[in-house]
Write a structure and sequence with these properties.
By secondary structure, the protein is mainly β. The protein has 4 helices and 12 strands, in the order H-E-E-H-E-E-H-E-E-H-E-E-E-E-E-E. The protein binds ligand MTE and molybdenum atom.
């Protein structure tokens, strides 16, 4: 069983669980305001530098899980396709393209934002957004789109699945009590990216 599952990390698929998804044949298209749109195969993604972020996924529904997420930095994809000067936002599309969510380019380029394919060294299962997902520890978890198939560069934000249903586009993490999935206990967490780790 995966570590995320062993810890009983919640599994959110608002659009319905996609069933098993595999790295084989998986592609992530990077398009929109780019010079040379490209569909990256999983092998091409694995060939890019592997980046890690020891960080938390924190849900607006008040739980937070910490681990070492592994994957690729979006800038390594953007260097291949070349961003147009007008690009200001990055829109992520999940498998079947029902779930989307957009973040500012500036947040996409931050150190701990990843397209993640691992958690604590294990490949992400489809339950948790495998084969590859957005991971944006700076904002509420709904900005971390699971099972990403498309990354679109835009010159504005557009409301995604939860944003059209009332969640804020800014998605700033607010202070408050949060269930710490790692510790199986409730903790007070500060606002902004949750950098308070526990043993
Ligand atoms: N495709 C898709 N991505 C999604 C969601 C979803 O329902 N569908 N839920 C989001 C929300 S609200 C959170 S908190 C995290 C939860 O990630 P997990 O299900 O892997 O724990 O995924 C985000 N990405
Ligand atoms: Mo969430």
């Amino acid at each position: 069983m995966s570590k995320l599952k062993t810890m009983h990390t919640p599994i959110f698929w608002a659009e319905g669980h996609p069933g098993p998804l595999s790295r084989k044949g998986w592609e992530v298209s990077v398009d929109g305001l780019v010079e040379k749109p490209k569909a990256f195969s999983f092998a091409e993604l694995l060939a890019l530098p592997r980046r890690t972020a020891d960080a938390r996924l924190t849900s607006v529904t008040r739980w937070s899980v910490r681990g070492v997420w592994g994957g690729v930095h979006l800038n390594d994809l953007f260097e291949v396709v070349g961003l147009k000067a007008e690009a200001t936002h990055v829109n992520f599309y999940s498998y079947r393209q029902i779930y989307t969510t957009a973040i500012p380019l500036e947040v996409a380029l931050r150190e701990r934002t990843l397209l993640a394919y691992e958690f604590d060294g294990e490949p992400l299962t489809s339950d948790y957004g495998g084969p590859i997902r957005g991971f944006v520890p700076y904002l509420w978890g709904y900005k971390s789109a699971k099972s990403v198939v498309r990354v679109e560069l835009l010159d504005r934000s557009i409301p995604g699945y939860w944003e059209t249903r009332g969640y804020s586009d800014e998605a700033q993490i607010e202070p408050g009590r949060v269930h710490d999935v790692n510790k199986h206990s409730w903790r007070q967490m500060p606002g902004g990216e949750v950098r308070e780790f526990v043993d």
